[in-house]
Design a protein that fits this description.
Elements: E1 2-5, E2 8-11, H1 18-26, E3 36-40, E4 43-45, E5 60-65
Parallel strand pairs: 1-5
Antiparallel strand pairs: 1-2, 3-4, 3-5
Length: 70
């Protein structure tokens, strides 16, 4: 299936969840998703729902990382 992640088209296998996509974007290292938020089709997805939220063809996922600074 084709989805848009952070504005870039990607081809992903069917059944890919928000959690899978976030792991792919963040490198999947333990703790890498700390400080990360996800929005699917302009709606924030709670972290507790990432694994149970499948992506569908033509979905738009934004993976946002909190950055500290001034």
């Amino acid at each position: 299936m084709k989805v848009i992640i952070n504005g870039e088209p990607r081809e992903l296998p069917g059944g890919t969840s928000v959690a899978d996509a976030v792991a792919a974007v963040t490198g999947g290292a333990p703790g890498a998703a700390s400080g990360v938020a996800a929005a699917l089709n302009d709606e924030v997805v709670r972290r507790s729902a990432w694994a149970g939220t499948p992506l569908k063809d033509a979905d738009r996922l934004e993976v946002l990382t909190a950055v500290q600074g001034g």
